[in-house]
């Protein structure tokens, strides 16, 4: 944080992690959505970049209410991520009534230590964010990633500011990094989000679509649901976007 801020780039490929590093200071959590091998990919990422790597522990897509078997997967992924040199871990878990699952979080935090842990955007799905915040502080999470319980950090800006004010008296807020805004952050809205939230960290994907290298293409088959990304278009972290976002943040912070 030599420049007074920290940019965290959400990546789901080694190429994106490398691009994030090339674009400037960044920290990237390789996404483990739908159990796609995030911790194993994190091992290769650690070999390719020098920036800190926070690994997301996510046994599947969908909600954040996990079964006993999924919990075992999460614990195994945490141990694997630590074995491969992760700098930190990212997870979130809720109860069926939209509260922080304190029992599960406590158990997972014990497996994560001594590494720092971020509670991810499961926070945006809680029943009462102000109560949830106090719970996460008491549990010992170092950071909470949030879009302010709205569709993007810009729309949720007022809640992000309110949450920051709630935690301000705590020692956790000394670095102003407890609440890195995340969700829909782009070059067009970053300035408003940083100025409105007083955050010194932010979370983004900074991606652009790149055309596939495939020459033969079958237009009749879709690999997944209708809302999935096209098979012949790949989204990767864009070096130019990372640099632009860094420059904006540097001018503000």
From TrEMBL:
Cite a GO CC annotation.
nucleus
Query: Any idea where this protein resides?
Result: Cytoplasm; Nucleus
The molecular function GO annotations come to: copper ion binding
Q: What is its main location?
A: cytoplasm
Instruction: List UniProt keywords, sorted A-Z.
Output: Copper, Cytoplasm, Metal-binding, Nucleus
**Domain of life where this protein originates:** Eukaryota
A UniProt-annotated Pfam family = CutC
Among its keywords, does the record have Translocase?
no
Key word Lipid biosynthesis present in the record?
A: no
Which InterPro entries does the annotation name? CutC-like, CutC-like_dom_sf
The family annotation for this protein states: Belongs to the CutC family.
What does the record note on quaternary structure? Homotetramer.
**Function, as annotated:** May play a role in copper homeostasis. Can bind one Cu(1+) per subunit.
Q: What is this protein called?
A: Copper homeostasis protein cutC homolog
- Its source organism is Stercorarius parasiticus
UniProt gene name? Cutc
């Amino acid at each position: 944080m030599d420049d007074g801020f920290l940019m965290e780039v959400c990546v789901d490929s080694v190429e994106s992690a490398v691009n994030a590093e090339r674009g400037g200071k960044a920290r990237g959590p390789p996404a483990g959505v739908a159990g796609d091998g995030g911790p194993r990919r994190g091992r290769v990422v650690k070999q390719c970049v020098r920036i800190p790597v926070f690994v997301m522990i996510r046994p599947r897509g969908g909600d954040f209410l996990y079964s006993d078997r999924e919990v075992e997967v999460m614990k195994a992924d945490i141990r694997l991520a630590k074995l491969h040199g992760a700098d930190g871990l990212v997870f979130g878990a809720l109860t069926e009534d939209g509260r922080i699952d304190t029992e599960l979080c406590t158990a997972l935090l014990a497996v994560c230590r001594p590494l720092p842990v971020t509670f991810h955007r499961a926070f945006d799905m809680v029943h009462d964010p102000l109560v949830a915040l106090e719970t996460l502080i008491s549990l010992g999470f170092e950071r909470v990633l949030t879009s302010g319980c709205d569709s993007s950090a810009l729309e949720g800006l007022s809640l992000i500011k309110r949450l920051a004010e709630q935690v301000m008296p705590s020692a956790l807020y000394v670095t102003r990094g407890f609440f890195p805004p995340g969700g829909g952050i782009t070059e067009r809205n970053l300035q408003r989000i940083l100025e409105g939230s007083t955050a010194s960290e932010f979370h983004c994907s900074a991606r652009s679509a790149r055309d596939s290298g495939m020459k033969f293409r079958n237009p009749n088959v879709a690999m997944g649901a209708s809302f999935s990304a096209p098979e012949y278009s790949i989204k990767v972290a864009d070096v130019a976007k990372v640099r632009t976002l860094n420059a904006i943040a540097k001018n503000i912070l």
